[in-house]
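Intended use. Records like the one below are meant for learning the mapping from a protein sequence to its folded structure. Do not use them to infer anything beyond what is encoded.
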Amino acid sequence: MKSGRGDEDHLAAGGPARHVPVLREDVMRIAAPCEGGLYLDATFGAGGYTAALLAPANARVLALDRDPAAVRAGEQLVRDSGGRLFLVQERFSRLAEAARRLGLTDFDAVVLDVGLSSMQIDEAHRGFSFRSEGPLDMRMESEGESAADLVNHAEEETLADILYYFGEERASRRIARAMVMDRAKAPFVSTAALAGMIARVAPAKPGEIHAATRTFQALRIAVNDELGELVRALAAAESVLKPGGRLVVVTFHSLEDRIVKQFFAARSGRGEAASRPLPGEAARPQPTFTLQGKQPVLPSAQEIRVNPRARSAKLRHGARTSAASRGLDEKLLALARLPHRDLKGRLHGANS
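Structure written out for the chain above:
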C-alpha cells in the first residue's frame, strides 16, 4: 500500500511506520476509477492509490516516482497487473513527457499525493529523519546536492531565507548563524548533529513540535525543489487530462496547499468578478477546471485516530474543461522560489 504522508512533526521526526494511504476513500470517490479507464498516479510511493485505480477491469495506470527505491519495490505490482500498470522512475513535473513516451494521452484522472513517504522516513540512511542517526542527505533521487552540501556551503543569508520561507521557522536567522559558526569547526554530516545543534540554539517550548522539525522540512524542500516540482506538475496534469477528467491533489503543509489552492482558483476563475473586458483589454482565458463541492476535503476524526499522519492532509480537486491548457503560471512559480536579494541585501519577490 502507499505509505502515509502527514504533518511536519510526524514526518520529519519519523514516527512509527504507517503504510496507510491518506484520504484514499475520498481520492477514489473523486477520481472515480471505472472499467477500461486510464489513470495517472504521479506519486506511486508504496502503490496504495495505484492498486485502487487498477481495481476495475481493464483499467490502466501510469505510475511515477522519482525515488528509484520505490520503483524497485513496485516491480511485483507491475508483474501482477498483467500489463495494465506502467511504473516509471520520473519526477512528477515530467508526467506529460512520461505519458508521451508511452503513447498515453487523455487520462480520466491524475492523482498527486504530495510530500514525503513514511518509507523514506523509516530508512535512516536517507537522512530525512532527525529521530535516528543517519547521513544528512534528504535527496529523493540520491543524486545532486545534498542537505549536507547546503548546510555546509550556502551563505548564512541563503540558509536563513530557506528556513524562513520553506520551513516557516521563526528562529531562522539564529539557526543559520549557528550553522555557519559550527560548520567552521567541523562540517555537519549527520542528522543527529544538526538536530542537536538546533535544539541547543532554538529549543522548543513544552508541548511544541520538535525544534528541528521546520528546519528539516525547509532543507528537504530546498534540496528536492519540491514546490517548483508541484507547480510544474499541476500544469503538466492539466495538459494530459481529457475533458471531464479529474485532478486530485493531497497536500500536507500550508506551502503546498497555498500553491494548489491558487492554481485551482486561477484555472477555474473562482473569485474573479464577472465583467466585460475594457476596450483593448485581452479577454480572460476560459476556465480549464471546474470545482465542485466544499474544499478542501479533510480527513475524518476516525482516519486521524487510525493514522495520525493524516491530520494535516488537505485534498483539493477539479474537473477538466475542454479549454486549452495554459502552461506554467509565473505567479505560482514565484511562490515556489526564494525571494532574491539585491546588492544591498534587500529582499525582492512575491514572498518579500
